[in-house]
Design a protein that fits this description.
Blueprint (H helix, E strand, L loop, with lengths): L3 E7 L2 E8 L4 E6 L13 H6 L2 E6 L16 H5 L1 H9 L4 E6 L1 H12 L4 E7 L6 H7 L14 H12 L7 H13 L7 H6 L3 H6 L5 E6 L5 H10 L4 E5 L6 H4 L1 H15 L1
Parallel strand pairs: 3-4, 3-5, 5-6, 6-7, 7-8
Antiparallel strand pairs: 1-2, 2-4
Length: 265
């Protein structure tokens, strides 16, 4: 299946996207930091085969999208969702967000519930103080180039450290290279999320929602904690994997996401 690629216009500038499926149920996908919509490359054909028209965005400053202008706020990232709906001619869609993307998806769902058919929050970072301190040590920004290329090794080591349980060498290489390409801006959402009141955000969501996680990801406990304060949300966990579960278990991930969305409407 051909995955179409293009750009749409948003308040933050040009937003790059990947699109699979024609005339199916609308679905918008938002990725984790510091990656891009390429995170969903393995599942886009599968989602289309399940009857969805799936749109994976590069959020501002990630992948091939323009960076958001100052002053930078989480709302800057969320502004691309209504722009994407307008571009596609959709008045509503299902919405799936992973890690950073989960927070941005939740913000849009809380602010514009009529436009969200169903919401999947995959790995929601409702962190303890200790977890927040741990994640604040991660840095995905630009490495100052060194003549001996040692900055490239530091980027590699950072990727491995931030992916406990990784098992796919080719995937680690691909994601390290991708993070370097937009390294000047693809880390900027991360500290905003660490400082956000995500408990209140969860409390504001009034659309059909599923919390999705996997037992090997670094936000497993945080997602379970999210469910404890919103037990009315559906909950699903996959076994094993890391925070790259979309690539590691594309069939299981697609089944979990589509089964919930189809059942919610």
């Amino acid at each position: 299946m051909t995955i179409e690629r293009g750009y749409l216009r948003a308040p933050t500038g040009q937003v790059h996207y990947r699109l699979a499926g024609e005339g199916g149920r609308p679905l918008v996908l938002l990725h984790q930091s510091p990656l891009s919509g390429a995170q969903f490359q393995a599942v886009l054909p599968r989602l289309a085969a399940r009857g969805f028209q799936a749109l994976a965005l590069d959020m501002p400053g990630f992948g091939m999208s323009d960076p958001a202008p100052e002053p930078l706020m989480l709302e800057s990232y969320a502004s691309v969702i209504p722009a994407a709906l307008t571009h596609m001619g959709w008045t509503h869609s299902a919405l799936v967000g992973h890690h950073t993307g989960a927070v941005i998806a939740a913000m849009h769902a809380a602010a514009a519930p009529a436009s969200v058919d169903a919401l999947v929050l995959n790995g929601f970072p409702l962190l303890t103080d200790a977890e927040r301190a741990h994640f604040s040590t991660f840095y995905f920004g630009t490495r100052q180039p060194e003549a001996d290329g040692s900055h490239l090794l530091r980027a590699w080591e950072s990727r491995l450290r931030s992916t406990p349980g990784w098992s796919d060498l080719d995937l680690m290489h691909r994601y390290t290279v991708e993070a370097l390409v937009s390294g000047a801006t693809n880390w900027r959402a991360f500290p905003l999320i660490l400082g956000a009141d995500l408990g209140s955000l969860l409390g504001a969501i009034q659309v059909p929602t599923m919390l999705l996680t996997n037992t090997g990801e670094d936000l497993y406990e945080a997602t379970r904690r999210s469910h404890s304060i919103r037990p009315d949300f559906a909950y699903r966990e996959l076994i094993g994997g890391s925070h790259d579960i979309v690539d590691e278990q594309p069939e299981a991930w697609t089944e979990a996401v589509t089964a919930f969305i189809e059942g919610a409407n």
